[in-house]
Amino acid sequence: MNQQMNPMLTPRITKVSVNIGVGEGGQRLQLAEKALEKVTGMTPVRTLATSTNRDLGTRKGAPIGCKVTIRDSETINAFLKDAFWVRQHTLPTYNFDSSGNLSFGITDYTDFPGQKYDPDIGIFGMDVNIVLERPGHRVSRRRKQARRVSASHRVGPEEARAWFSKTFNLKIVGYGEEE
């Protein structure tokens, strides 16, 4: 069946998560929250450590970073347009996982269009995670009668690469190619 005929086969972006990991609470975390709010226009939520690690100096339950989850399609498209511009519309093929999701990093929030360096905030990088699913994938997450999504309905890495290349005009490069 053709994808134009069946709208349930057309992939779409479910959510975009933007994360800044600081590794500690306090002043640096507050500055990271400001930087994330400037870039996304949304209020960030703090992320907490899930385990204690003496080498890293983290305690279970202590704040170590912040994140924003974007679910509105218009906001997603505007943010991704800028994020892909920062990456010069080029991503390596290994940024796609086996489920068709895309993850990449941005080294400095001031690389985004319209952002200027603020000496009070400093420099913060961020991780961007994009979830690509077909409609109907919610059945795997719902509370009542949760079911598995068949392999034929999941988005694979090859299909995800083709979808992102077509939709956002991205250049996907392999291991040996120049970026």
Walk me through what this model shows.
The two termini are 36 Å apart. The protein is α+β, with helices and mostly antiparallel strands and 179 residues long. The protein contains three helices and seven strands, in the order E-H-E-E-H-E-E-E-H-E. Strands 2-3-1-6-5 form a five-stranded antiparallel β-sheet, covered by helices on one side. The protein has helices at 27-40, 73-86, 157-168, and strands at residues 12-21, 45-48, 63-70, 90-92, 102-106, 126-133, 171-173.
Please provide a brief summary of the model.
The protein is of the alpha+beta class. The chain has helices spanning 27-40, 73-86, 157-168; strands spanning 12-21, 45-48, 63-70, 90-92, 102-106, 126-133, 171-173.
Topology:
Layout: E1 12-21, H1 27-40, E2 45-48, E3 63-70, H2 73-86, E4 90-92, E5 102-106, E6 126-133, H3 157-168, E7 171-173
Parallel strand pairs: 4-7
Antiparallel strand pairs: 1-3, 1-6, 2-3, 5-6
Query: Mean pLDDT score, rounded?
Result: 90
Give the CATH superfamily: Ribosomal protein L5
**SS summary, helix count:** 3
Q: Ends: how far apart? A: 36 Å
| Cα-based radius of gyration, to the nearest Å | 18 Å
> Which CATH-level-2 architecture?
2-Layer Sandwich
- How many individual domains? 1
Strand content: 15-25%
Poorly predicted parts: none
State the name of the first-level CATH class.
Alpha Beta
The helicity comes to 10-25%
CATH level 3 topology? 50s Ribosomal Protein L5, Chain: A
Q: Helix/strand/pairing class, anyone? A: alpha+beta
Gross morphology: globular
Order of helices and strands: EHEEHEEEHE
Spatial ordering of strands, largest sheet: 2-3-1-6-5
Q: How would a crystallographer describe the biggest sheet? A: 5 strands, antiparallel
How many β strands by DSSP?
Answer: 7
